[in-house]
Design goal:
Two copies of one chain form a homodimer.
Chain A: H1 3-13, E1 31-33, E2 40-49, H2 60-77, E3 81-92, H3 98-116, E4 119-128, E5 133-142, E6 158-162, H4 167-175, H5 184-191, H6 197-202, E7 209-212, H7 217-228, E8 231-235, H8 243-251, H9 258-261, E9 268-272, H10 277-287, E10 291-298, E11 303-306
Parallel strand pairs in A: 3-4, 8-11
Antiparallel strand pairs in A: 2-5, 3-5, 6-9, 6-10, 7-9, 8-10
Helix pairs in contact in A: 1-3, 2-3, 4-5
Chain lengths: 323, 323
C-alpha cells in the first residue's frame, strides 16, 4: 500500500482513540497512560488469521468485534474490566476496496468500544502477501490481588461452565455448509462471542480456578488439570446446550461432540468447592446467565467425558490425553 | 500446526516470562501487573512481515531482536524505559524446522531482554498460509507528565538527529545485491537497530518535539511539521553519515538520497530552541552519541532538503509534499 493509503487508514482509527491521553488521537509514537489508582493491570494478546479464525468474506464489522471479544474473553477469565486496546492489522496487498473494509472494521471496533466502555490506545497497519491478520492487545484493570487464576482447583471441586457449549462450532459447520439447515442463532454465536466479563468480576473468592473456553472444553480443561495436578470427570449429559443446538443435532447427531471439542465457545470454565454452590446460584440469577455444574476434579490425572452408561467418550479421541 | 507444536512453542517462551507476576510463566489467560508507583505507562505496537520488514532467511535471533528494537525505538521516542512486552507470532504452515526457528527466535528475545532489562508479559502463536509475521506490544514507564511528544516544535527551532542516517537502507541494498560490494557494518545496521533509549530519557525539558525515524527522514518529519503547523528546511550536507556509508557511496552515488528517504534508521529526530544547544552538546558527550543539527523549522509549510546551491533536492521526488 502507498503511504496515502496508510494515512487513509489512520483517519478511520484516530476517532476511536482519545484525542488527549492516553492515545493523543494516535498521532504520537505511543500512548501514555496514568494507571488507574489502586488497580492492577491485566494484559493479553490474541491473533486471528483469515480462513483460520474467521472468513475473508465475513462482514468486516463482525470480524472486528470477534477479534475484540476473543481478547475481552481473556480479560473476563481474569476477572478484569476492559480499559483499552491496541490493534495491528495486516492487509493483503491484493485486497479489493481496502477503504470500505477498513471503514466497516473501524465501525465494528467503535460499536464494541461503546458496548464495553474502553478505547483504542494504538496500533499499526502493514500490508502482507498473505491472508488478512489481526492482532489485538487488550488491557484491563482488576483490584490488587484479585485477578482470577487457572491454577487453584482442588480435588473434588465442582466444575462449572457458563452459558451453552458447542453453538459456535456448530455455527461454523453451518457456514461451511456441512450443516445444510443453517441456523442463524448458531452462526451468530460463531461471529459474535459473548465475553463473560460480569461473571468473571463476580467469581473472586468463589471460584478456585477460572479460564475461558476457546479451543473446546477438553482442550482447555487440561490446562486447569495440569496446573493443579488433578484430572477431571465431566458428565456428558450435564453439558449445557442451546435449544438451537439441540434442534440442529436431531439431523446431525454426530456433531454432538462439538460440545467438548468444538472450540470458539468463549464461555467461562471454572471450579469451585461444593459449599459455594448457593453463591453460584445467586450469581447466575443476578446475571441472568446459566451456570451449570458439569463434573468434578479428580485425583486421577485423566480427563473423562462420561456417558450415562459410564463409558469415557474420549477413549480413542484426539482430545484424549492421559497425562 | 498441531496442539503438540503449540505446546512446544510455549516451552520456548515460558522461560522469558516471570514465573510469578506479571506473566505466571505464560500459563494463565493474561498477565497481571501492579503498575510501578509514581509512573505513567507507555504503550506501542508494531507489526513486521517477512519479505517486507525482514527476510525469511534472516537468522531468527536477529529477526526477534529487530522486532523488539523497532518497538523499543518507539519507547525511546517517548522518553520511556522498557518494562515488558507481548509477542504474537504467525508461523507459515509449510515452514521447515519450526522448532529450530522458534528456539533461535526465543534466544534472540532473551538476549535483548537481558540487554534492555524487561520481560515477556504474554503472547500468542498461530499458523498462517501467508508469510511469517510478528507483532510486538511494548510497555514502558515514564515519569508522570514527562512523556516526549511529537507536537511541540516552534518556528525557528533547530532540527537534530542522533547517530547517522541511511546506513540501514544501504545495508538493505547490500542484502538485495543492488550494492555489489556489501559492507557488514551497514548490513548490521539493517538487522539490528539501536533504540536510543538513553537519549530519549535525557530530552525532557530540552526537546520541543521528538519522534523516531522509521520510514525515512522526509517521510517522518512531515508528521512533526503537520502537528506543529510548520515546515522544515534541512541542509543536505549536514545530514550525518557513517564512514561506511560514505565509502560505499563513492561507487553508488545515486543512493545518497537514502539518508532522507531510506527508512529503517531508528534514530531520534527532535527539535529544540537555539538556547539549549549547549545542553544538547553535553548530552551528546555524556552518551557518546552524535547529535547533529541538520536544519530548522520554518513558517512556510514545506519540507525542503536544501543542497549547497540552494536547490530543493525533493523537487519532483515522491517524498515531496507541499501541505
Amino acid at each position: 500500500m502507498s503511504s496515502g493509503e496508510f494515512d487513509l487508514i489512520s483517519q478511520y482509527f484516530s476517532p476511536l482513540s482519545n484525542q488527549g491521553a492516553p492515545a493523543f488521537g494516535l498521532r504520537d509514537d505511543a500512548a501514555v497512560l496514568t494507571p488507574p489508582e489502586g488497580k492492577d493491570l491485566v494484559f493479553t494478546k490474541d491473533a486471528l488469521v483469515a480462513e483460520v479464525h474467521f472468513f475473508s468474506n465475513d462482514p468486516a464489522d463482525l470480524v472486528a468485534r470477534k477479534a475484540v471479544r476473543v481478547n475481552l474473553s481473556d480479560l473476563a477469565a481474569m476477572g478484569a474490566e476492559p480499559l483499552g486496546y491496541l490493534v495491528a492489522l495486516a492487509l493483503p496487498k491484493d485486497m479489493q476496496d481496502i477503504e470500505g473494509w477498513v471503514a466497516a472494521f473501524a465501525r465494528g471496533l467503535k460499536q464494541d468500544q461503546d458496548e464495553f466502555d474502553w478505547s483504542l490506545f494504538g496500533g499499526d497497519t502493514v500490508s502482507t502477501t498473505g491472508p488478512l491478520m489481526i492482532t489485538i492487545t487488550a488491557i484491563g484493570t482488576v483490584d490488587p490481588g484479585k485477578a482470577l487464576r487457572r491454577n487453584g482447583a482442588q480435588e473434588a471441586d465442582d466444575i462449572y461452565v457458563s452459558g451453552t457449549l458447542g453453538d459456535a462450532a456448530l455455527g461454523l459447520k453451518c457456514l461451511t455448509k456441512e450443516v445444510v439447515t443453517p441456523d442463524s442463532a448458531l452462526i451468530n454465536r460463531y461471529h459474535l462471542p459473548q465475553p463473560r466479563l460480569d461473571l468473571g468480576q463476580n467469581l473472586w473468592g468463589i471460584a478456585t480456578s477460572v479460564m475461558d473456553i476457546s479451543d473446546g472444553l477438553v482442550g482447555d480443561i487440561r490446562h486447569l488439570c495440569a496446573l493443579s495436578g488433578l484430572g477431571a470427570t465431566i458428565e456428558s449429559d450435564l453439558i449445557p446446550v442451546s435449544d438451537e443446538f439441540g434442534k440442529t443435532l436431531e439431523s446431525f447427531p454426530l456433531y454432538k461432540k462439538l460440545i467438548w471439542n468444538g472450540g470458539d465457545d468463549y464461555e467461562l470454565l471454572f471450579t469451585a468447592p461444593a459449599h459455594v454452590a448457593d453463591d453460584i446460584r445467586k450469581i447466575s440469577k443476578s446475571l441472568g446467565l446459566d451456570l451449570t455444574k458439569i463434573g468434578r476434579m479428580t485425583k486421577e490425572k485423566a480427563i473423562v467425558i462420561q456417558a450415562s452408561n459410564g463409558d469415557n467418550l474420549l477413549q480413542g479421541e484426539q482430545g484424549y490425553r492421559h497425562f
